[in-house]
Amino acid sequence: MSKTPRKPSQSPALQLGRAVDWPQTPDEAKLDRVPNPQADTDYLVRFTAPEFTSLCPVTGQPDFAHLMIDYAPGAWLVESKSLKLYLASFRSHGAFHEDCTVAIGKRIAQEIKPKWLRIGGYWYPRGGIPIDVFWQTGKLPKGVWVPEQGVATYRGRG
Are 117 and 110 in contact (CB under 8 A)? Predict the structure, then answer.
């Protein structure tokens, strides 16, 4: 059973429960972690970001993606408000689709050291070509159920 949640005043380092400025860059963004109260159990956590945006590093035009982040936590969980702020920091960041997707996966893995993590970046077409990017760490723990990401590949009209 989980312990009584801490009040925000007891967790001054966390962004949760208090007003914080929006980070302007991914490097400036703080990704918080919290202890996993079920660390002795293998299970899956999924974050879905269907409106992720970044900028093309060449044209400065916006790029849009549907991100799916799945992970089997170890001792730590990603705190969701900090993840939201981290992902939002890409709105003014210029990088190619592959770089954004893999960098996000690596940053989360570095911060929380999950037993397993995968990220799927389903990017909307630019120049007529959709790009889907996938990255994962190691092997999935035995017995953990991972549903399909459920994001259809891009299909044009017709």
Answer: no
Q: Is 148 annotated as a binding residue?
A: no
**Is 82 known as a binding-site position?**
no
63 catalytically annotated: yes
Q: What is the mean pLDDT of residues 104-114?
A: 98
Please identify which of the residues 42, 56, 99, 132 carries the catalytic annotation.
56
- pLDDT: which is higher, 80 or 10: 80
CA distance 156 to 140: 33
Domain ranges for the chain: 27-136
CATH of domain 27-136: 3.30.1130.10
> Any known ligand binding at 28?
no
One of 32, 63, 70, 100 is an active-site residue; which one? 63
Q: Which of 131, 106, 109 is nearest to 54 (CA)?
A: 131
Active site residue 70: no
Global pTM exceeds 0.90: no
Q: For all residues of the chain together, what is the average pLDDT?
A: 90
